[in-house]
């Protein structure tokens, strides 16, 4: 079981810990227009899934912008998804304010479908724990990082290296 803290306080992450080599769990989240989005909507592509507690915080905003900057270098066979429990309306506003059109922001606020399937729902806060999942075109998990302290940055270089390893 993954153990993390958020602002130095332990949080409970119910659900399944996902590991490299696992089949990627299915999930349903919401696009900014409230339409449902599933893992299968990007079938046949590699996916970098960047999970953040809230786009409206400094580290989450920087994490999302960093992966957006890298997205063009990944090529057209890679989808970069940022998932949070923010409302789709807040995500849409954030994207407009930050000009981050090279990635897709998705909301898990309705059911915590992604959070529960990937073991990143912080039970005490109803937010998602900062984490990274790289999934190959065959829906196998290639890389996972559960960031131990929720206010810290992920290891960007390792995540980027994992994506590029799938596309070379």
Q: Would you mind describing this structure in some detail?
A:
- The protein is α+β, with helices and mostly antiparallel strands and 168 residues long.
- 27% of the residues lie in helices and 26% in strands.
- It has four helices and eleven strands, in the order βββββαβαβαββββα.
- The protein has helices at residues 58-74, 88-98, 113-117, 156-167; strands at 4-6, 9-11, 28-30, 36-38, 46-51, 78-84, 104-107, 121-122, 127-128, 131-135, 141-146.
- The strands form four sheets. A five-stranded mixed sheet has the order 7-6-5-10-11. Strands 1-2 form a two-stranded antiparallel ribbon.
- The model has no long low-confidence stretch (mean pLDDT 95).
**Beginning-to-end CA distance, first to last residue:** 33 Å
Overall strand count? 11
Provide the low-confidence segments as ranges.
Answer: none
User: How does the major sheet shape up?
Assistant: 5 strands, mixed
Proportion of residues in helical segments: 25-40%
Question: Strand arrangement, largest sheet?
Answer: 7-6-5-10-11
Question: Helices and strands, in N-to-C order?
Answer: EEEEEHEHEHEEEEH
- Cα-based radius of gyration, to the nearest Å: 14 Å
Shape: globular
How much strand? 25-35%
What is the mean pLDDT?
95
Q: Which structural class fits the helix and strand makeup?
A: alpha+beta
Alpha plus pi helix count: 4
């Amino acid at each position: 079981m993954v153990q993390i803290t958020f602002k130095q306080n332990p949080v409970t992450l119910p659900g399944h810990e996902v590991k490299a080599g696992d089949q990627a769990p299915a999930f349903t989240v919401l696009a900014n227009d409230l339409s449902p989005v599933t893992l299968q909507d990007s079938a046949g592509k590699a996916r970098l899934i960047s999970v953040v507690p809230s786009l409206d915080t400094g580290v989450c905003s920087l994490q999302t912008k960093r992966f957006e900057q890298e997205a063009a270098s990944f090529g057209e066979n890679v989808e970069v998804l940022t998932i949070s429990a923010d409302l789709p309306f807040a995500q849409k506003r954030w994207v407009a304010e930050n000009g981050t059109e090279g990635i897709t922001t998705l909301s898990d606020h309705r059911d915590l479908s992604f959070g529960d399937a990937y073991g990143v729902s912080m039970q005490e806060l109803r937010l998602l724990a900062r984490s990274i999942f790289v999934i190959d075109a065959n829906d196998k998990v290639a890389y996972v990082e559960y960031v131990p302290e929720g206010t810290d940055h992920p290891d960007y270089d390792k995540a980027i290296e994992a994506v590029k390893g799938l596309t070379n």
